């Protein structure tokens, strides 16, 4: 019997607990002389996936989404989420206790400004908020005549009696032949980007992992070691990591290039560097307010901006590019086996969303190289396909019958991270769906075929994916593409293809290409491949250009395409893509799956 090893289908939300837990928190706040408290969905590094011990928002409210923030006052409480979670929030929280609020249209600062009265004190945990976040909250609170108060210990933890222990996952060495550069060379390259006398605090665990060629096991789906590092312009770096996570061999390898110290020593280091009048650079996106304040209080100078490692990590080495190609070929064979299985089983009936998720994970595990999933699989039938970040549970599991099925999934392999979405249909599709599918496909092809000069941003490319939808008065509300790491996060910045994508795309960056279209309550469409930015030599061209190499190889269901809506170049792209799928994937398959693939990829 198939089963899932890397994901759970348990319903973690329990709205019935909200009232009692908020009451306990309010009592704790009153004991501390606070009139309210801000509870973000965050750990000390602002990770997308946080360890169970940091799931304070989920414990307090029942909301299990990947982004959100709650504010609890003595007489009101609200949970702020973005448009991805408009439906989910109402299903997971006690609406008699928490008011759902749209984060973008009515952010926590505005909500607080409308409710606070002079003299009130609102608490926050300075380890869980970045300086820009604190600045926004502070302005709103002070404008109302109230005070924003940092707490020494989190009051949620004081009433969370069965809170899990902090993670202590083993740290492993990431092979140099996969990283493409050794630790010492990476440290030297980072130093070159610092000013004389400047020290960089690395607060993003992804950056720590990249810098020292290590991986960890502290959070789900992303091989992160929760750790910090100090990298001075001159002198040895210091890696702040729990020594219990290090074997002797790992410690020896790290100590060849860096000092290793316990995380508890980081605050003392801020105080010491501050007293020495040192200048530190902090990452605005991930550094805790607590560390910046400690340095400044001791007399140091803080520059809160961008971590130079983010762009260095985003442009993959040649070894990482080749590793990603190998990972995608391996993953493509597993995905082809799933598509063949689905094509045979779905028309018979008896499948559910969960059984499809379990089958796909099974095929990936059979590669013998799967380390984890890169995120919990999104598998939605019918109305669930219209929810971009749907997560199936035993309570929501739908049977898969005639209609639309969307599956968005990925694997973590030591040589690369994958992410692929295909929209499938069991039985004949309705005309409106075929029209929408073909428009989404045309946008996907436009991105895949894009050629652009260096300096072009993701925001400039984003309309390519939407143009055919716009012509029909349609659009989608998520970005077209996110950055992807190399055996790190499947959602990597700063590169992205979106209206907010301001970072210029550069050679070696990996992104997703995933336009979509959603009809609430009926169906959803998304077609996603990963793409690699590469140099393009244009015969007769006057300027250097960039384009995309497609990394993902899986059939796009042919009978969902209105071929008459495609122009000659789009039809040629589809046929060439499917021919490449056959050439790359077919040799990796058993004869029966290979025969199915031949049919699934025949020319239009």
TrEMBL record:
Residues 21-153 form the Creatinase N-terminal domain. Residues 544-604 form the Peptidase M24 C-terminal domain. It comes from the Bacteria. One of its GO terms (molecular function) is metal ion binding. Gene3D superfamilies: Creatinase/methionine aminopeptidase superfamily, Creatinase/prolidase N-terminal domain. Residues 325-534 form the Peptidase M24 domain. It holds the Pfam family Peptidase_M24. Keywords: Aminopeptidase, Hydrolase, Metal-binding, Protease. InterPro entries: Creatin/AminoP/Spt16_N, Creatinase/aminopeptidase-like, Creatinase_N, Pept_M24, Pept_M24B, Peptidase_M24_C, X-Pro_aminopeptidase_P. GO terms for cellular component: cytoplasm. Belongs to the peptidase M24B family. PANTHER family: XAA-PRO AMINOPEPTIDASE 1 (PTHR43763). This is Aminopeptidase P family protein. It comes from Lichenibacterium ramalinae. The lineage of its organism: Bacteria, Pseudomonadati, Pseudomonadota, Alphaproteobacteria, Hyphomicrobiales.
